[in-house]
Amino acid sequence: MPARIEVISGFGEKAPAAIYVQTTNKSGQTVRLLLDAGGSLEGLPDKGWNIPDNLDAVLISHDHQDHIGGLPDLDKQIPVYATPQVQPYLPKQLTVQTLPNKGTIEIVGIAVTTGNAGHSFGGVWIHLGIDNGLFYSGDFCKESELFPFDPPPTADIALIDASYGLYDIPQSRSKQAIRHSLSQTQPNLFPVPQSGRALELAMWFHSHSIGNGQDIDNRQRYDNWVLGEDCIQPNAVLTSPKGLFTTYAEQALVTMTPPPFNDNAHIILCGDPEGFSGDAGRLIDSGHCHVIYTGHLPAHAKTAVANDEAHFIRWNVHPTISDQATLIEELQCSYCLPLFTKINDLSEWQRRLGDTIIDTPIIEY
Length: 365
Ligand SMILES: [Zn+2]
Fold this sequence. Notes:
Blueprint: E1 3-9, E2 18-24, E3 30-35, E4 57-59, H1 65-68, E5 79-82, E6 95-98, E7 103-107, E8 110-116, E9 124-128, E10 134-136, E11 157-161, H2 171-181, E12 188-191, H3 197-209, E13 225-227, H4 236-239, H5 247-253, E14 267-270, H6 278-286, E15 290-293, H7 299-306, E16 311-312, H8 321-331, E17 335-339, H9 346-353, E18 362-364
Parallel strand pairs: 3-4, 4-5, 5-6, 10-11, 11-17, 12-14, 12-15, 13-14, 15-16
Antiparallel strand pairs: 1-2, 1-18, 2-3, 7-8, 8-9, 9-10
Protein name: Beta-lactamase domain protein
Pfam families: Lactamase_B_2 (PF12706)
Domain Metallo-beta-lactamase: 16-182
């Protein structure tokens, strides 16, 4: 089956995800698929790329803006496949079909296999049964204590999330840094994504508050934490199909009951992650919190961090370079294209990840 893969957006920079795949199915028909349809990371109306003509289907990896924000521009006749947890976040006018969280279905004559990607609630990686396999990671993380990463089948061609570039600091170091940066006099505000990291941080603080952490400074208390009301709550584990959370999380979350939200808790976890709106936006404006960002920093947050009015400590939700290397080994691929990052020096990437690394946005075979 000849195939053409084109990274329309997301190659060479952190940009909205949109990957076009054209191939023939087992009946000999030409099939045109789009993997993700991302919108602007800066909240701009222009997503910066055009939707290809004559698409047969769009497959969505997860519900973040840079993977679904371009969907309002899609012709509503084109089927959009997403997992049940992602579907509520899609524009209402679309023709939505269900993608399994883990399993294989056939879409326009192509075998599509998915598995949990360890990055967000209901987020998946996608494997297409074209020749010896095409793997697209979506956004993935192998360090999450909340969401599992399912081992994928092997694939000849891999398109993998490399949002952090060559960064290689493990989560354990970030956790240490967060402990040391907590204020003892002000509420510590973490503006976090409501659908994932909020609960992961809550689980981490909770695990220490009940005395599980041997290395905790006794002067620091972790039990006084609150979770924004618009965040996924611990009881989501009770209402979700088994397998969407790690076994560790399934056990830990059932014993967690967040206290009612209040503005003076020692640790406040709430959205939005960029501090524009919601409780986080309101509390930042109030000026009474010690603010710690853990993800993407918009311009106002960068300025605050530069002026020492806020702090930044990365909480890994994308792979380190070591975890990219492990995934490439598991996939046994011949070609691997790192996405959502700038590749300044291809030989350095090849030195770290092997000779399979390529830096071209179009692959034809
Ligand atoms: Zn994401």
